[in-house]
């Protein structure tokens, strides 16, 4: 265990190493998956010249090592190739579409935490209460219902029937964006909150057994101090670690939700690129997803360390 | 030591005759769904592929779930689709379970070596991606068909089992009964097959059950996005997507496939929860 600030350097360094590997995976998908991308685009009856040209455009010419270093070189310079279907640089496409996705995912993460903490507290403090009896049933339903289906139902009821939210689209300015985001974020929370609340509940229950809790009650610390300093802060680390891990998966869920709510995010672009077999775009977006997951995990590790310095000291 | 706790487990489990209620509900629910998905396509007078009735009819005695925009009976299509989705997800999970667990167990047992360090790197980086996203990327190459979906899910999924098995095998490789077996001069294969693998397998199986929920949802998701099974083949995600534009006028086209998908996922989820609780606390 490194001392002082060095732990931060360690966490960030590991993040950089893993994103490099993520880039390698994105690179490999086109090369290792069964099927020839060139023939998939052009069809079986393409002329050899056309095949050769497409190979060059996809960066699939030359041997694999050469391709790999060319790809990495491009990534470092911010060049992710050019879309086959629209001839726009992939980096441009990503920059244009990342804002809705990031806003959606961060709003969902915040909302999920805000909902899970009181819920988990309540579940831990009143294990025999009505909420604790209903919770497991609702939780299983929430986890098992596919997000895109829940999204469709929400869209039908809240947007189409009751007109409480816009049916599709996005506005990139701050207060307006919330009008578009609240419903999809809530839908994503339906799967997230049950998991987080359950984890937070068990951490709080473990914290309740600690001697400092008893000491705090005996000393009669203020209600705010008791909940925040004695109960929530020592219990929150596993929940945030999980949230960090799940937020990565949340990026996956956001692909579905963006499609349902017709948001012009990076997930929508990925799906469009997949169905159009626009391989450079698929590769570039995969890379971004990999890097985003790493960034989110790294940030959550830093946050955990800040909130509960005991965490991860055995690493 | 390990073996003694194991045999105690087994005795306790047999005493635990009455099943965990969650498990029971899950098994019954899943049984009903499987039964329906086998029987309905055989017994129904309607063809899941061809529309012979009035389009866009609401649920009625003739068409329990109504008909879609092409006049096809949704009831028979839903269960034909469920059969396909169940079969695909069981195959996908089965193959990734076997491949991933074998690889992971061997890696955990062998410990540090160049090959296993490299494989660890591969596994961790595959797992760093959201499952749907990577599967979607692979599906772009393998193509929108049932086999394409299978390939995409297996190529992405095996790494998740490998991680679980590697961690477990690394613990077991240091257990006393494994050292004892090695001291007795058993071959590496025998230690692997008889002593390590059975202990790794039980945990991997519990993990596979919870993965089955995720995989069935991902197959439907890929098809919903147009990157999986394509219409007119009946598939739950594809059906939900087909009914999307009619959601305002004919909610049943999307809602019934979605509800059955959710029920199927829920039943497997309950089984996974129940199984885990039984093996952990029993």
Task: Kindly summarize this structure in a few lines.
Chain A is mostly helical and 315 residues long.
Structure description:
The complex is a heterodimer of chains A (315) and B (282). By secondary structure, chain A is mainly alpha-helical. Chain A has 12 helices and no strands. Chain A is globular. Chain A starts with 5 loop residues before the first helix and ends in an 8-residue tail after the last helix. The mean pLDDT of chain A is 80. The longest helix of chain B has 37 residues, at 74-110. Chain B starts with a helix and ends with a helix. In chain B, helix 2 (21-43) runs antiparallel to helix 10 and helix 8 (188-224) packs antiparallel against helix 10. Helices cover 75% and strands 0% of the residues of chain B. Chain B has helices at residues 2-15, 21-43, 74-110, 114-128, 131-142, 146-173, 176-183, 188-224, 236-243, 252-281.
Low-confidence stretches of chain A: none
Distance between the termini of chain A: 7 Å
Please state the structural category of chain B.
mainly alpha
Largest sheet of chain A: none
Q: What best-fitting shape of chain B do the alpha-carbon axes yield? A: elongated
Q: What integer is the average pLDDT of chain A?
A: 80
How many beta-strand segments of chain B? Answer: 0
Low-confidence regions of chain B = 1-11
Number of helices of chain B: 10
| First-last Cα distance of chain B | 18 Å
**Sheet with the most strands, sense and barrel status of chain B:** none
In total, the number of strands of chain A is 0
- The CATH class of chain B is Mainly Alpha
Helical residues, percent of chain A: over 70%
Mean pLDDT of chain B: 83
Strand content of chain A: under 5%
What is the topological layout?
The complex is a heterodimer of chains A (315) and B (282).
Chain A: H1 6-32, H2 37-42, H3 48-58, H4 64-76, H5 90-125, H6 130-144, H7 147-161, H8 174-208, H9 211-219, H10 223-260, H11 266-275, H12 279-307
Chain B: H1 2-15, H2 21-43, H3 74-110, H4 114-128, H5 131-142, H6 146-173, H7 176-183, H8 188-224, H9 236-243, H10 252-281
Helix pairs in contact in B: 2-3, 2-10, 3-6, 3-8, 3-10, 4-6, 5-6, 6-8, 7-8, 8-9, 8-10, 9-10
């Amino acid at each position: 265990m490194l001392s002082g600030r060095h732990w931060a350097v360690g966490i960030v360094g590991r993040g950089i190493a893993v994103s490099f590997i993520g880039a390698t995976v994105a690179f490999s998908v086109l090369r290792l998956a069964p099927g020839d991308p060139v023939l998939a685009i052009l069809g079986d009856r393409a002329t050899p010249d056309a095949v050769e040209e497409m190979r060059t455009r996809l960066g699939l010419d030359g041997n694999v090592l050469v391709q790999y270093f060319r790809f990495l070189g491009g990534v470092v310079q911010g060049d992710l190739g050019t879309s086959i279907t629209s001839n726009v640089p992939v980096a441009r496409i990503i920059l244009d579409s990342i804002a809705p996705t990031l806003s959606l995912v961060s709003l969902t993460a915040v909302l999920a935490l805000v909902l899970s903490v009181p819920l988990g507290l309540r579940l831990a403090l009143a294990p025999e209460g009505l909420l604790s009896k209903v919770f497991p049933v609702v939780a299983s339903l929430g986890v098992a219902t596919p997000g895109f289906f829940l999204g469709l139902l929400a869209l039908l009821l809240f947007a189409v029937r009751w007109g409480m939210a816009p049916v599709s689209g996005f506005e990139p300015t701050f207060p307006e964006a919330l009008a578009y985001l609240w419903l999809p974020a809530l839908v994503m929370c339906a799967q997230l909150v049950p998991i987080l609340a359950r984890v937070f509940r068990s951490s709080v229950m473990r914290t309740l057994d600690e001697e400092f809790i008893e000491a705090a009650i005996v000393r009669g610390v203020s209600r705010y101090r008791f909940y925040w300093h004695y109960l929530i802060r020592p219990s929150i680390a596993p929940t945030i670690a999980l949230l960090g891990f799940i937020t990565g998966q949340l990026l996956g869920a956001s692909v579905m939700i963006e499609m349902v709510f017709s948001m012009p995010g990076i997930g929508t672009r990925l799906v469009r690129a997949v169905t159009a077999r626009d391989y450079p775009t698929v590769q570039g977006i995969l890379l971004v997803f990999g890097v985003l997951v790493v960034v989110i995990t790294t940030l959550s590790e830093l946050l955990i360390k800040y909130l509960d310095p005991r965490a991860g000291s055995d690493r | 030591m390990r073996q003694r706790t194991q045999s105690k487990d087994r005795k306790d489990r047999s005493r635990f005759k009455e099943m965990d209620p969650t498990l029971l509900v899950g098994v019954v629910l899943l049984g009903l769904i499987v039964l329906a998905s086998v029987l309905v396509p055989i017994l129904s007078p309607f063809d899941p592929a061809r529309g012979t009735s009035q389009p866009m009819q609401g649920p009625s005695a003739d068409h329990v779930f109504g008909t879609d925009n092409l006049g096809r009976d949704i009831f028979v299509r839903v269960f034909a689709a469920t059969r396909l989705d169940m079969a695909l997800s069981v195959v996908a999970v089965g193959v990734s379970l076997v491949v991933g667990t074998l690889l992971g167990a061997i890696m955990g047992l062998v410990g540090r070596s160049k090959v296993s360090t490299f494989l660890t790197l591969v596994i961790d980086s595959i797992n760093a991606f959201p499952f749907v996203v990577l599967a979607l990327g692979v599906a772009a190459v393998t193509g929108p068909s049932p086999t394409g979906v299978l390939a995409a899910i297996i190529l992405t999924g095996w790494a998740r089992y490998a991680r679980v098995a590697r961690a477990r095998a690394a613990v077991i490789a240091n257990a006393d009964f494994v050292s004892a077996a090695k001291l007795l001069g058993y071959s590496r294969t025998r230690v692997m097959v008889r002593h390590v693998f059975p202990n790794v397998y039980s945990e991997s199986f519990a993990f596979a059950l919870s993965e089955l929920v995720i995989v069935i949802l991902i197959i439907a998701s890929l098809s919903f996005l147009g990157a999986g099974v394509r219409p007119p083949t009946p598939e739950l995600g594809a059906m939900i997507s087909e009914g999307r534009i009619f959601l305002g006028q004919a909610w049943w086209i999307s809602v019934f496939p979605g509800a059955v998908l959710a029920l199927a996922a829920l039943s497997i989820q309950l089984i996974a929860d129940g199984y885990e609780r039984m093996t952990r606390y029993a």
